[in-house]
Amino acid sequence: MTIMMPAADQAVLARREAIIAALRKLVPGEGVISSAAEMLPYESDGLMAYRQPPMVVVLPDTTEQVSKVLKYCHENGIKVVPRGSGTSLSGGALPLADAVLLGLGKFKRVREIDFDNRAVVVEPGVTNLAISQAVAHAGFYYAPDPSSQIACSIGGNVAENSGGVHSLKYGMTTNNLLGCEIVLMSGEVIRVGGKTAETSGYDLMGIITGSEGLLGVITEITVRILQKPETARALMIGFAEVEHAGQCVADVISAGIIPGGMEMMDKPAIHAAEAFVHAGYPLDVEALLIIELDGPGVEVDELIKRVEKIALGCGSTTCQISTSEQERLLFWSGRKAAFPAVGRISPDYLCMDGTIPRAALPLVLRRMKEMSAKYGLGVANVFHAGDGNLHPLILYDANKPGELQLAEDFGADILRLCVEVGGVLTGEHGVGIEKRDLMPEMFSEVDLNQQQRIKCAFDAQGLLNPGKVFPTLHRCAELGRVHVHGGKLAFPDLPRF
Amino acid sequence: MDILKVRDAQDVEQAVRAAIASEQPLEIIGHGSKRMVGQPIATNAVLDLSALNAVTSYEPNELILTVQAGAPMADVLSLIDSKNQQFSFEPMNTSQLLGTPDIGTIGGMISAGLAGPRRIQAGGARDHLLGVHAVSGFGDSYKAGGRVVKNVTGYDVCKLLAGAWGTLSVMTEVTLKVMPRAESERTLVLRGLDDIAANKAMTAALGSPFDVSGAAHLPGSALRTTQGALGEIASPDQSVTLIRLEGITASASQRAVSLSTTLKSFGVAEILEDAQSAALWAAVRDVTPFAASGPRAMWPVWRIVTPPASGGALGQAIAKGSQGEVIYDWGGGLIWAALPPSADAQATQLRKLVNAAGGHATLIRAPEDVRRAVDVFHPQPKGIAALGERVRNSFDPKTILNRGRMSRGLGT
């Protein structure tokens, strides 16, 4: 393990049996898991290079139980790591040796469907896809669609502010929420928002969304649902140069077209995907774009023509347009299977997640090629081209000593490059533990201190999901101190009127 | 009164630090166009950001705009308009409602977070603010967010700053997402529906697959003395219900026809195009029926956000109980209510109805003595109020910035 977690509190570990007994009183039945064998499935999340058995797993099934567990932990100085389906790619749900792992998997009910207000109230353990399925009969769906949507929970989506292929047009999780119920570390239950478009007062829902389980435990969520677009069609366009594909993306957007999805794959990713699913991808191109247009039929047909023309103008070498739903899904099948496809050509891979200004793409891909040579590790790229979100997949073999470290160093270099060209460390996977120590590449200590002060407003003892997101932890008392700078001579050289 | 006109972010930092040292709260203004919104602020020092007015960068192909917080909205809007782009949340121009000469600065617009009709489709100011540079009440310059559309690095601090009315930080530079302007727009006009029927029509439209980007209802009595675009289409004492569709021309036209069919049980819809349609929505956005130059200039105006499908019933109850006027946007989810003047702007009665509906109400326009007497922002349950106060404290423990503007208890 190359990323260090906070040292376990031996005093807490010494009380393990008593803690387990106390938790069993709060969550009866099979809701408390403490045997090593049964805790095994909870040792890691989607960042599988890291594993850690928790002190104990607790699986409550009511808000009241969550509240009692947190209150108990708060009063007894016990850390808590919340977990949804455990699909985080950044280690957000990685257990700590001295922490309670609080699983929300039993919160599986859709509580209310309100078509008139275009809102669905769900429990956090409901999967992303299940929401769309629950409303599909009336032509509605829930727009954010992370690749893991079959498995990932909506609670996890809120914690991570998950995106997906369609986020360019329909936004991320944060843009599709109406309300939530959260339990603070103290056990206090808070409800923000509801079925209204805006919450009152400060946008607490906005700060909770994407807070990676550090601010509270989400126990209920109200999402907004949309009518499914009448139709969707896709173009699959090949380019002999990555630059041409990049230009095409820019030109589509400057033409005022916001596609439902706009994905790019580079040559290694195209080859891996094609070998895996036989989607009919051209193998002699350097870059492949899949552009999906959705909406009313007449609009989609017209925009398909416009995009095709733009692509030709950018030097596309191949262009296929889907004429049936089956064909559209075939185009996507390779892209959607890109991660497992890469898994077939390499024993292990690390999936990175930076975002860059779109214009910087050719430069970033060129530099990545140089790094790949330097580290001696292959890299395949899939890219949410519309919103500049890169997913370089670094190929390595964990069984070769030192390769994980090498892959992580390569990944860190890629993320530093993203920041250098004006981008950010993570577009949708979250900071978690994976990018925690890179935060200073993007934020100064002052920036991070302000974020940690917000944490203090929610969890002053720092018991909720510690060791994630922030590279260094400060005491809240220290962060809250106001320094009086200089004397009282106000504004000596400011113009006065 | 001391007015400190800052030239750059360092000046802001210096001013806030000096204010901390001298325990002197600061009122933060751009052009001051929304100064009369909120609880009155007790201070005699004003921090004026209007000189921080540069466009840092505008990259139409990236759909990204970075400007200093004091940049005039008028300039920013004309800049992005020149590239056929827009803020898709349709920020409200408050000048007509509040009776100010100026439409204000971009920092003020984000701090107020007043989104227009397209909020139902595209979200609000909070959804389009990607990054900020700001100075906290600790006197520290910090940044949050970034300059790309997709970013989950660290807490989403931008969400808190949008709509915080300058009580958390002084924003010095902001990065916003811009979007292409639609090629065409069409507005369906239905006449003579009462509030409940109109609410149903709007609900049906918003639940249709036709991608509605505006749904408003204006009762006949509210239109009676309205000037401008809304006055022109009004017939005497008849309500109008407006439903907007945008997109490429062929699509907007076809959807307008299809939606008319869907809504035929509500009457025969007229279809207005482009410029005529746009003028109507600008008037809805800016709440011109309650303009400060009109006959209801002296009436306090409430902005009520409520679950949309029951908005008609709530609005009707408010209008009846108060002898006031209401207009509806966001398919019923936003109600503007102008009520006959009273010492408390009828806050108690109004909030009782709004609470029962699951909404919240903000007093956007009222004389200073009224704003002193009532909670301008909706009172919150104890737990959320306390959490909100802890969050505010995490940015500004000495309550230097716009002290008490959002909370009566703090304005001492």
From TrEMBL, chain A:
UniProt entry keywords in alphabetical sequence: FAD, Flavoprotein, Oxidoreductase
GO molecular function, one term: oxidoreductase activity
Origin: domain of life: Bacteria
InterPro entries: FAD-bd_oxidored_4_C (IPR004113), FAD-bd_PCMH (IPR016166), FAD-bd_PCMH-like_sf (IPR036318), FAD-bd_PCMH_sub2 (IPR016169), FAD-linked_Oxase-like_C (IPR016164), FAD-linked_OxidoTrans_Type4 (IPR051914), Oxid_FAD_bind_N (IPR006094), Vanillyl_alc_oxidase_C-sub2 (IPR016171)
Required cofactor(s): FAD
Residue ranges of every copy of the FAD-binding PCMH-type domain listed in the record: 50-228
A Pfam match: FAD_binding_4
Classification via SUPFAM superfamilies: FAD-binding/transporter-associated domain-like, FAD-linked oxidases, C-terminal domain
Signal peptide: none
Cross-referenced PANTHER family: GLYCOLATE OXIDASE SUBUNIT GLCD (PTHR42934)
Protein name as catalogued: Glycolate oxidase subunit GlcD
Organism: Tardiphaga robiniae
Automatic annotation (TrEMBL), chain B:
Keyword Transmembrane helix: no
Pfam families, alphabetized: FAD_binding_4
One annotated GO molecular function: catalytic activity
Organism: Tardiphaga robiniae
Keyword list, A-Z: FAD, Flavoprotein
Name by which UniProt lists this protein: 2-hydroxy-acid oxidase
Domain FAD-binding PCMH-type: 1-181
